[in-house]
């Protein structure tokens, strides 16, 4: 995998250069990203949209340090993340990146507040303080009364909000979201997006959202459309897409 050694740092919050990603499909190489170049400015809410299978989740997983690219350079706030050792990359993600998974990825044996507190506890914060902060974030998402329930006692929308709280509780500089409003009704979705927008407009932070939810397109500062592993549209207008 080539990295950032030959690529100048342009000062963008997130800088992606020449990113490809290949997967093994039954002994054949399947290329799902084709030389993606993308710069994301801090202080903006950026949407990534497109049909299923277009490469959106693969791209944000690479940006978030979860999935290694086959080739290319990824800088997050000036750090060449794939030049880091595995341990340093985990530490960087823990302090700098919040990822909202579409499938929630909650720990089934601990309650909602403890799930939301996981990043803080992993950083070494006292468990009681971490849980108190997590509870406060759940309150902001209007589910503070669900803090002591296990994930299997929550609705899909409530689990989604716990996952969002977990991604935001440690105040990461980069928040990456995969369909954060998919399981939410219109009112809850707008509440979540208001919170994400509050995070995004900070001058030292950035938020990237994969979404098909046309109810929230009006909140974006920038909309990128992906087709077949390439970015085909970059603007502020809302493209016509099926939900």
From TrEMBL:
Q: Which CDD domains match?
A: ABC_MJ0796_LolCDE_FtsE (cd03255)
Looking up PROSITE patterns in the UniProt record yields: ABC_TRANSPORTER_1, ABC_TRANSPORTER_2
Give every ABC transporter domain span. 14-243
Q: Which Pfam families match?
A: ABC_tran
Highest taxon of the lineage? Bacteria
Q: Which GO terms describe its cellular component?
A: membrane protein complex; plasma membrane
**Is Cell cycle one of the keywords UniProt gives this record?**
no
**A GO molecular-function term, please?**
transmembrane transporter activity
Write out the entry's keywords from A to Z: ATP-binding, Cell inner membrane, Cell membrane, Membrane, Nucleotide-binding, Transport
Family, similarity comment = Belongs to the ABC transporter superfamily. Macrolide exporter (TC 3.A.1.122) family.
Read off the PANTHER family from this record: IMPORT ATP-BINDING PROTEIN (PTHR24220), TRANSPORTER, PUTATIVE-RELATED (PTHR24220:SF659)
Q: What is this protein's name?
A: ABC-type antimicrobial peptide transport system, ATPase component
Species name: uncultured Sphingomonas sp
Upper lineage: Bacteria, Pseudomonadati, Pseudomonadota, Alphaproteobacteria, Sphingomonadales
